[in-house]
Design goal:
Elements (H helix, E strand, L loop, with lengths): L25 E2 L7 E2 L3 E5 L5 E3 L2 E4 L3 E11 L16 E5 L7 E11 L8 E8 L3 E11 L2 E10 L24 E3 L3 E3 L2 E8 L7
Parallel strand pairs: 2-9
Antiparallel strand pairs: 1-3, 3-7, 4-5, 6-8, 8-9, 10-11, 11-14, 12-14, 13-14
Length: about 200
């Protein structure tokens, strides 16, 4: 040793830990559950945010969205939901169903630093569309009885959904066999004409 002294210095770089973003899955304003068949549902993830200390609750730092269909109380509807998956707001037309069903969707988001959020979920209940009977008129021609049945549906005329008559009965049982003309509509008012082709024409 020569008796000299010196100072040793060290330096280090501290990299802050990325705080994961928070996904917020909900229905868009003006959209409430339940909804009817052939309605529009808008899923909204635009309130998702990044919560880094330098920029708390910053929605602008969300770089991507990932929506997923998770499950439904009636499993067969999964193929009927066409969902855009990579947008903040995703809309779809509800399937036409004959019983109520609740569908759950999941959302995860990614921030500008590549952090991926835990999944948040939102559920939507879809109700069958309403069919309201309006009138049934019976007429008799020769030995046949003819019924004209009119009803109203919530479905618009351009929905592409068709109706069919699956069964017809009367008090005396003479409608066990029948023929049906094409179902026609004016707007959301639908009409079907049935003719009893059994041997009796009693009404």
């Amino acid at each position: 040793p020569d008796g000299s002294t010196g100072t040793e210095s060290n330096s280090c770089t501290i990299t802050p830990t990325n705080t994961l973003p928070v996904a917020v899955a909900e229905l868009a304003p003006g959209h409430i559950s339940p909804v009817t068949s052939y309605g529009t549902v808008v899923l909204d993830g635009s309130d998702s945010y990044d919560d880094d200390p330098v920029s708390p609750r910053d929605k602008s730092r969300i770089s991507s969205y990932d929506w997923k269909y998770k499950y439904a109380t009636v499993s067969s509807v999964s193929s009927l939901v066409n969902l855009s998956t990579s947008v903040s707001q995703s809309s779809f037309t509800t399937p036409v169903i004959d019983q109520s069903v609740t569908i759950t969707f999941g959302l995860t988001v990614t921030d500008n630093d590549g952090g991926r959020s835990p999944e948040d979920t939102v559920a939507v209940t879809i109700m069958p569309f309403d069919i309201t009977p309006i009138n049934t008129a019976l007429t008799q021609a020769s030995d046949k009885t003819r019924a004209t049945i009119t009803w109203q549906s919530q479905l618009p005329s351009d929905s592409g959904i068709s109706f069919r008559v699956e069964s017809a009965t009367s008090e005396d049982g003479n409608w066990s066999t029948y023929s049906s003309s094409t179902i026609s509509n004016t707007g959301n008012i639908f009409t079907a004409a049935l003719t009893d082709i059994s041997q009796s024409a009693d009404t």
